Amino acid sequence: MTAKEIRQAYLDFFKSKNHEVVPSAPIVVKNDPTLLFTNAGMNQFKDAFLGNAEPKAARVTDTQKCLRVSGKHNDLEEVGHDTYHHTMFEMLGNWSFGDYFKEDAIAWAWELLVDVFKLDSDRIYVTVFEGDESENLSSDDDAKNYWLKWVSEDRILNGNKKDNFWEMGDQGPCGPSSEIHFDLRPQEEREKVDGKSLVNMDHPEVVEIWNLVFMEFNRKADGSLERLPAQHVDTGMGFERLCMIIQGVRSNYDTDVFTPIISQIERLSGKKKTDSEKTLVAMRVIADHIRAIAFAIADGQLPSNNGAGYVIRRILRRATRYAYSVLDLKQPFMHELIAVLASEMGDAFPEIISQQGLVENVIQEEETSFLRTLEQGLKRLDDIIEQTSSTTIDGVKAFELYDTFGFPVDLTSLILRERGLDLDQAGFDAEMTVQKNRSRAATKMSTDDWVEIRKDAREEFIGYDSLQSTVHIAKYREV
Ligand code: ATP
Ligand code: MG
Ligand code: MG
Ligand code: MG
User: Fold this and answer.
1) Alanyl-transfer RNA synthetases family profile domain: which residues (predicted)?
2) How many domains does the chain have?
């Protein structure tokens, strides 16, 4: 099955169980001071769970664009290191608002995976919440009993609060969860080591695919839990991981969600992903980051110097740095990946087509200016080298390069090494720690640079100064 077919089959399945198919909410969150970006399918239903709003229907399903780059769920640093955590990913979900509960949620999850998608049931493990005394929460025996209809007891694991009590952030609706994991390892390896021992161990081939959350509580600002007025179901399945399993590959990047983007990066750079491990990692990082950047811009979040815009700017620069230093791409190129995204994802997310021109122009502009900064950084590094008499370059100076010019430290050490010089890494790291603390404080701040783009805006992008008048941007400010 292709990715498109898998997405559609998911939605069709829940439609057949009387769910209304609803669109994804924007990836940027405008009016919630506790959240910069949508980090789970349930975000848009928060008020319905809390009892503050009527849900559109008692049962809904969708695929939600998620971004996990800040706050409680931050996977940015995993990207490039593992093959199943992305910045932007799609979360397939089905919800019940005070309608069905654990029994149906579990039965349908099983039916979909085993009967519809034909996953090998011998490779599936499930987890249930073991309870938590400090919060006065009991173990989820109901969920366990419903699972026992489908799986044997030795495939059911107990999980602690960290893994089996789902929370959106520091506040909001939450509840015990039951997760489904899949063992992708070959038969010989499965015989040697029981897959059960690898669940929740961050094993690259024993991966979590689906989280069924039984929403029963609200975490209040003071940290206490209160019962919600009704019991709800909130599920989230990683679409790219599901595609990996169904398509029989070992990495999300080998599914057709990513291969068209990676092929385009290969064409543009004249390099192959098989050239070296470093090349492969760089291509994965770029393929991942371009999705995050493109969808954030399409939803109105432009790169900027603070709040959510700064997060997007940093993701874009991270991708540019990999391209510059590993793929030798010294000219803007990322905007040339947007057409691929539009043709692969435009069916499910039409905004990527309607905003294509804007997205391309913003990215090209941003890349151009960052590449200029990189060039300036190179010159500054030359000066530093000239002015230094020792063979070790001061970490504080290297940090200044990184901080002011966005000049990557790995590039600094590479250049230094080529010239027989060393970097004072400890000095650099110390400065970095100071800055990390600062930016942690910054992401806690509410955003002040939200923009809403007219739905049909395709005007020519001239630059940031004139952007507001040409694209009719309305500014919102958090209150
Ligand atoms: P993990 O333990 O792998 O980090 P999670 O427990 O943080 O996942 P949930 O919050 O339970 O994830 O989200 C529901 C599902 O979304 C997960 O079961 C997984 O399939 C998928 N998912 C979560 N984070 C990512 C990510 N960064 N990239 C791709 N898919 C993800
Ligand atoms: Mg996680
Ligand atoms: Mg998990
Ligand atoms: Mg989970």
Assistant:
1) 1-479
2) 2
Q: Model's pTM, two decimal places? A: 0.86
**Residue minimizing CA distance to atom 7 of ligand 1:** 73
Express each pLDDT in 362-421 by its tens digit. 999 999 999 998 888 888 999 999 998 899 999 999 999 888 877 778 778 877 887 889
**What residue owns the CA closest to ligand 1's atom 23?**
238
d(CA 44, CA 292): 19
- Block residue for tokens 């039951």: 178
Domain hosting 460: range is: 258-476
- Residues lining ligand 1, CB < 6 A? 40, 68, 73, 75, 85-86, 89, 91, 208-211, 236-238, 240-241
The residue contributing the CA closest to ligand 1 atom 12 is 211
Domain boundary, last residue among 223, 252, 281: 252
Q: Which residues of 386-418 are buried (b: 16+ CB within 10 A; e: fewer)?
A: eeeeeeebbbebbbbbbeebbbbbebbbebbee
Give the CATH number for residue 100.
3.30.930.10
